[in-house]
């Protein structure tokens, strides 16, 4: 469906607009070259969903513009089979002086739809975008969320073979985002190909078959979603292999100024890593500082079998300050009720500064423990987690008199 072979894209950057004219007149160089993409190659098969991850400036948007034909590569080749539509930067392909109805026609034509197709799908597009009362108003009067809804509705109804989605979906409200995700899943079930760029790591894990990681214009990882997300987190932590201290934990990374030398996870009743939903679990981490650490944050993160982040916390969020001296060891113990649905999970642990690992990461250990939740203690529930819920029934008698039944607690531990 998509074959990208060694593409490179460079841009000329000028300090001020007049330098363009000076370069043309005097024949001297007044610019510096910025390489947005450098020798990037990958393939996306028919019916496959591929995520693209990377920090701001990594080259994600440039890559999507190349895939949709908005830009041309300076080197390399892109081969695409089938019809491609894209939802890129908000408002791309729209005329904000025209009405929403007129933009359906103009944008649909730009996406390769015929006038007959646009007429037959117009009502479906309007209904999906939920803009029935505003469709004849100029687009300049729309909110950013309304513009995104219209753009997505047109693009997905253009019947593409390959659908390319940028961060534009993040503008919509929760209701419409869920609606878009359902539409994308149905698109995939019909054999459609998806290229998905998002900073929502859980969405990438749930939707995509694999993910690419870009860093400074280079493709640095092409892996299953969870592995790609872990690699992306490593980039965010600003950890380069040359700067890392070898860790005693396989697959861990970090500066090594502090490290986990021992860990234990078990249910307080089962005394094993197979626990019941609702059982109190104890996670103990033994930490050793190689040098003085004036501000240490210890965190844990639970992920489900899809790699989704279910729950995370750390000593910074819990308001427990930690200071370690050189060669000092401490045991940090987390106790938490495992009120999550039965299934298989992993525990990730991390040592860093402040609230997250962005400033300095001492050690990050993905999937340091595997555990299973089997069976439910107390009231059964649906979904991912059990929330303590109260329920009250109010009987309405004659004359609107109220007869309140005794409130009960649903979902709490028994």
How is this fold's topology laid out?
Elements: E1 2-14, H1 18-26, E2 31-44, E3 49-53, H2 60-67, E4 75-80, E5 84-87, H3 100-110, H4 115-129, H5 144-157, E6 162-165, H6 174-189, E7 193-197, H7 201-207, E8 210-215, E9 218-223, H8 225-236, E10 258-267, E11 274-277, E12 280-289, E13 297-303, E14 309-314, E15 329-337, E16 343-352, E17 361-376, E18 389-391, E19 394-396, E20 402-404, E21 408-410
Helix pairs in contact: 3-4, 3-5, 4-5
Descriptive account of the structure:
The chain is of the alpha/beta class and 414 residues long. It folds into two domains: 2-234, 3-Layer(aba) Sandwich (Rossmann fold), CATH 3.40.50.300; 241-376, Coagulation Factor XIII, Chain A, domain 1 (Distorted Sandwich), CATH 2.70.50. Helix content is 22%, strand content 36%. It contains eight helices and 21 strands. The chain has helices spanning 18-26, 60-67, 100-110, 115-129, 144-157, 174-189, 201-207, 225-236, and strands spanning 2-14, 31-44, 49-53, 75-80, 84-87, 162-165, 193-197, 210-215, 218-223, 258-267, 274-277, 280-289, 297-303, 309-314, 329-337, 343-352, 361-376, 389-391, 394-396, 402-404, 408-410. Strands 5-6-7-3-8-9 form a six-stranded mixed beta sheet, sandwiched between helices. A five-stranded mixed beta sheet has the order 11-17-16-13-14, with no helix packed on it. Strands 2-1-4 form a three-stranded antiparallel beta sheet. Strand 8 and strand 9 (218-223) form a beta hairpin. Helix 3 packs across helix 4, helix 3 (100-110) crosses helix 5 and helix 4 (115-129) crosses helix 5. The chain is globular and about 70 Å long. The protein starts with a strand and ends with a strand.
């Amino acid at each position: 469906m998509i074959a990208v072979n060694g593409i490179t894209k460079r841009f000329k950057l000028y300090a001020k607009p007049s330098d363009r004219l000076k370069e043309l007149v005097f024949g001297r160089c007044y610019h510096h070259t910025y390489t947005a993409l450098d020798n990037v190659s990958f393939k996306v098969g028919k019916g496959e969903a591929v995520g693209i991850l990377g920090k701001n400036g990594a080259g994600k948007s440039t890559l999507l513009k190349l895939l949709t034909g908005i830009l041309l590569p300076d080197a390399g080749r892109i081969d695409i089979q089938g019809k491609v539509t894209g939802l890129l930067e908000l408002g791309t392909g729209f005329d904000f002086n025209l009405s929403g109805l007129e933009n359906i026609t103009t944008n649909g034509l730009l996406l390769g739809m015929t006038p007959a197709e646009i007429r037959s799908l117009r009502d479906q597009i309007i209904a999906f975008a939920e803009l029935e009362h505003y469709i004849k108003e100029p687009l300049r009067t729309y909110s950013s969320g309304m513009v995104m809804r219209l753009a997505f509705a047109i693009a997905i109804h253009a019947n593409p073979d390959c659908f390319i989605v940028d961060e534009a979906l993040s503008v919509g409200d929760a209701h419409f985002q869920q609606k878009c995700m359902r539409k994308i899943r149905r698109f995939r079930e019909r054999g459609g190909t998806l290229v998905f760029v998002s900073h929502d790591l859980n969405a990438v894990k749930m939707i995509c078959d694999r993910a690419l990681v870009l860093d400074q214009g280079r493709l640095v990882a092409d892996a299953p979603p969870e592995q790609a997300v872990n690699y992306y987190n490593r980039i965010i932590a600003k950890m380069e292999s040359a700067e890392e201290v070898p860790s005693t934990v396989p697959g861990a990374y970090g500066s090594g100024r502090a490290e986990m030398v021992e860990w234990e996870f078990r249910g307080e009743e089962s005394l094993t890593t197979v626990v019941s939903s609702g059982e109190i679990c104890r996670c103990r981490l033994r930490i050793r500082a190689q040098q003085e650490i004036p501000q240490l944050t210890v965190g844990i993160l639970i992920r489900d079998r899809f790699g989704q982040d279910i729950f995370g916390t750390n000593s910074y969020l819990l308001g427990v300050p930690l200071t370690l001296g050189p060669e000092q060891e401490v045991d940090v113990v987390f106790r938490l009720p495992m009120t999550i649905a039965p299934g298989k999970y992993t525990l990730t642990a991390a040592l860093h500064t402040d609230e997250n690992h962005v400033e300095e990461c001492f050690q990050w250990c993905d999937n340091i423990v595997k555990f299973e939740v089997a069976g439910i203690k107390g009231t059964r529930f649906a979904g991912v987690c059990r929330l303590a819920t109260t329920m009250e029934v109010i009987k309405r008698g004659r004359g609107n008199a109220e007869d309140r039944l005794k409130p009960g607690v649903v979902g709490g531990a028994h």
